[in-house]
Amino acid sequence: xxxxxxxxxxxxxxxxxxxxxxxxxxxxxxxxxxxxxxxxxxxxxxxxxxxxxxxxxxxxxxxxxxxxxxxxxxxxxxxxxxxxxxxxxxxxxxxxxxxxxxxxxxxxxxxxxxxxxxxxxxxxxxxxxxxxxxxxxxxxxxxxxxxxxxxxxxxxxxxxxxxxxxxxxxxxxxxxxxxxxxxxxxxxxxxxxxxxxxxxxxxxxxxxxxxxxxxxxxxxxxxxxxxxxxxxxxxxxxxxxxxxxxxxxxxxxxxxxxxxxxxxxxxxxxxxxxxxxxxxxxxxxxxxxxxxxxxxxxxxxxxxxxxxxxxxxxxxxxxxxxxxxxxxxxxxxxxxxxxxxxxxxxxxxxxxxxxxxxxxxxxxxxxxxxxxxxxxxxxxxxxxxxxxxxxxxxxxxxxxxxxxxxxxxxxxxxxxxxxxxxxxxxxxxxxxxxxxxxxxxxxxxxxxxxxxxxxxxxxxxxxxxxxxxxxxxxxxxxxxxxxxxxxxxxxxxxxxxxxxxxxxxxxxxxxxxxxxxxxxxxxxxxxxxxxxxxxxxxxxxxxxxxxxxxxxxxxxxxxx
Length: 560
Description:
The chain is of the alpha+beta class and 560 residues long.
């Protein structure tokens, strides 16, 4: 019955299920020998090397001296990787300081003017143009409080450039400048950063910078060498920098594909925005060495030290950008997921790809009726040809497309976090209210990652979740801030466990129905939820629940 309390036994059963869903077995992780990715142990299984399927896909097509092979296959075979992943030094990790690292879109043309082609390293003046530090506190802080990642060691920079010149084809033509190296400190914070560091006495800004739904305990340790810095990014979610020509070209291609796609055709997800992959003259993918390297191979030498393995490069078996990104953030040594610049770069590309793939053509009803006969005669080939001509900035060769050009407009739909996506959610809520009566519960769930031992286990700590009394003094903000993927994994694990065990609901992918059973709120007939990120980047969930047996609006008013 609606809003009738469940039995005490039901509540205990739900709590017991939730404890099991967040215990040792549920949070245990393993490393896949094939892709070297971190997965929950329940997602993978053990198999003999001799029984592996499709061994040909694990054979090397481009051998490299750094490869270690097992039976001729490239497998992940490290014996102590899991131990390293779950160990953490527990001393000196908390700090009396905390802060945010915010990434903004820069004027790339101005930055390019500060670089001199193949001359490396870039002038130290580029640091002042791209990095700014602001201290907020009651008094000036000494330079030693600047975080360690701002330190520069001249010898390390020189050795790194020499190694890249020898081993990385992207950097083989660089010219190492002794004068530029001498501009850098022997071992310290560059003057271009320390001299421009600002100070503010307005401590009210601290609450705005770190405020969230869940209060965090204050750290008493004054060690300034390990400062928890939460990284934030200002991202153009609607990809407004994508010009209308490119939008129209992708919309035309999407129309053509919608006519010919079936269960065996290549889906939109395998296509790329033409700005990012490097291609040869015959249209094939390449690494793009020289003056136009692949955007990841050229930007992240620490992640791709040998200049190989970039996204959207020539491969025997094509790998989509999104699938390659999923592989990277799960990689065993965690170097991709802990490089926050890599995360922002890849997300920006995925967002732009999503906008272009979801772009649709729109025409007014009056214009459609006026040109209906010509429109029905168009073929997928006509749209593909028009898309190629639009990308090349050429006029349409098809007279029908020329006539329609002024009547066509593009719509950015099905793109995460845009106004269009919010309108779709509101439409779902109104439709559900008509079908299920007014919603019964408005719910906000905000798991506290820095205070939860489950999150620390996913960061690599060795904690027995099935037998612990209280969370002791372990790294909290530092560990979470350094591994945003672990924080997101903790959020999804917690939310799924809460919905399935406490509320008794489980949704199905690409299916509008849900499986529901008795939970602490009795039966939930439907729900709509949206995930948001708060000020410091942690995730929270807003949900609306419709309980079974909820009365219509008029009856609810009468009872109230």
